[in-house]
Design goal:
By secondary structure, this protein is mostly beta strands. It has 2 helices and 9 strands.
């Protein structure tokens, strides 16, 4: 059974049910500081945390709200992260897999959606079955 679709670098990953953590790391192009976004998938929802320095937090929020607190209290049903800069994505699910990406988007979506949902990707698109909870035969 497929529960999540994950797309990065024009590769589609079909993920079976179970907990998942995704860490996106990048350098803010304005402040030059490192930023880490952590997306934990638990119970059919994503919970998000952001870690960076005070200067970069101020840049993102203009001091108006607590981005870390706001993110931690918000459950979302999908992730879209796009950047024109280089970023690193680490996926933790039964094993650790790391990708580096440049000028592309990371998309993670709960599947199937209750309403109509379409993903448009330009070729080439590769489909890979990984992170299965079923052990491979030895």
């Amino acid at each position: 059974m497929i529960e999540l679709l994950l797309v990065i670098n024009h590769t589609l990953f079909l993920l079976s049910p179970g907990p998942l953590s995704i860490v996106v790391e990048f350098q803010n192009s304005v402040t030059g500081s490192n930023v880490s976004l952590i997306f934990n998938y638990v119970g059919g929802q994503f919970y998000v945390w952001m870690f960076t320095d005070e200067k970069t937090l101020e840049y993102y929020t203009s001091g108006i709200y607590d981005v870390g607190g706001a993110l931690a209290r918000t459950a979302i049903d999908g992730v879209v992260f796009c950047s024109s800069m280089k970023y690193k994505v680490t996926i933790y699910r039964f094993k650790k897999v790391t990708f580096e990406a440049l000028n592309t988007c990371l998309v993670v979506q709960i599947w199937p959606k209750k309403d109509s949902y379409y993903i448009f990707l330009q070729p080439p698109l590769f489909i890979i079955f990984i992170f299965s909870s079923i052990p491979s035969p030895r």
